[in-house]
Amino acid sequence: MLKLVAQRLGLGVLTLFAAAVLIFIGTEILPGDLASAILQNSATPESLKALRIDLGLDRPAYVRFFEWLTSALRGDFGVSLANKQPVLGEIIPRLKNTAFLAGYAAVVAVPAAVAIGLYAAIRQGKVFDRAANLITLMTISVPEYFLAYVLVKFLAVDNTIFPSLANATPDTTFVERLNLLFLPMVTLVLVVVAHMMRMTRASVLSIMASPYIEMAFLKGLPKWRVVVQHAFPNALAPIISVIALNLAYLIVGVVVVEAVFVYPGLGQLMVDAVSKHDVPVVQACGLIFAAAYILMNLTADVLAILSNPRLRHPR
Q1: Which residues, other chains included, contact 221 with Cβ-Cβ below 8 Å and sequence gap of 6+?
Q2: Per DSSP, what are the bridge partners of residue 86?
Q3: 86 phi and psi, to 5 degrees?
Q4: What domains lie within the chain, and their CATH numbers?
Q5: Claim: this prediction has a pTM higher than 0.85
Q6: Based on C-alpha coordinates, what's the Rg of the chain?
Q7: Percentage, residues of the chain above pLDDT 90
Q8: pLDDT in tens, 143-192
C-alpha cells in the first residue's frame, strides 16, 4: 500500500511540473509584446529595451522558467506588473475568498448528493429516481455560466430575493457573506451534485447484486436498511473518489462563477490579470489552481486505496 501511495505522490509531483511548464508556455505565447503593453503610448526603442532587460525578457525562456519555478516553490511569485505590489500579498486574501466559496458549496453539495443518491437507489425505477436522473442530466449538460444567469434572472432580477453581485469585503460579516454568496454557491452545487449523486446511485446499485445483499433481503430486512447499512459502506471507494474530484472542481471551476458574480476571489483576480497582461499574477493563479486540482486528485487516489481492503491488506 505504501508503495502505491508513493507512486501516486511521485506522479503528482511530475504532473505539477508538467502543469507549471504549460502555464509558463501559455503566458509566453500570449498575444502582444509584454513590454509594449506595459509602456503603451510612452514606449520608445530605448525604454522598451530597458524594460525587457528589467523583466528578464532578454534571457532564454528556460532560464526564466526555472528561476520562476524555484522562486514560486519558496513562496515568491514576484511583483505584479499592474500595481508593483508583491503577488503573494494580492493572492492570499483572494485565495481565502475562493476557499470560502468552495467550502460553502462543498458543505451543501456533498451531503445532498449522497442523500439523493441513496434515496434514488432505494426508489430505483420510481418517480423520484427518474426525476433525479433527469434533473442531474440537465445540470451536467448546461454550462455553469448559463445556470448562473438563469439564477440571477429569477432570484435577483425578477424577484429580488438574493443579490446579483457577490461584492464581499473584508468587513462583511459571516451571515452577510453567506447571503451574498448564495447564488454562486447554488450554481456550483447544481453542477457538482449531479456527478456525485449519479456515482452514489450507480455504486450502490452495483453492490445490490451481491450474494450477501440477497441474504440480507432473505432475512426480511427493509430495503432502506439494506442500502444504507450494507450496500453503501461497501460502495464508498468510487463515491469517495468522485467526491474528491468534484471538490477539486469546486476550487478550479470557480473562475467562471466568480467572473459572473464579480466575486473578489482568485478566479476573478486571474481574469483581471489576463486583461491587464499581468503575467506574474496569471502564472501564480494558474500554478495555485493546478496544485489544488492535483492535490485533490492525489487525495482521491489515496482514499480509494485506503478504502479498498484488497489494497490495504495485499496477500
Answers
A1: 230
A2: 79
A3: -60, 135
A4: 2-73 (no CATH), 94-312 (1.10.3720.10)
A5: no
A6: 24
A7: 16
A8: 888 888 999 989 988 888 888 888 888 888 899 999 999 999 999 998 88
Cβ atoms of 284 and 243 closer than 8 Å: no
**Sign of torsion over alpha carbons 194, 195, 196, 200:** positive
| Model pLDDT for residues 250-297, shown as the tens digit of each residue | 887 788 888 889 898 888 888 888 887 788 888 899 999 999 888 888
Cell of 118: 441513496
Q: Return d(Cα 139, Cα 137) in angstroms, integer.
A: 6
Query: What does the alpha-carbon distance between residue 182 and residue 184 come to, in Å, rounded to a whole number?
Result: 6
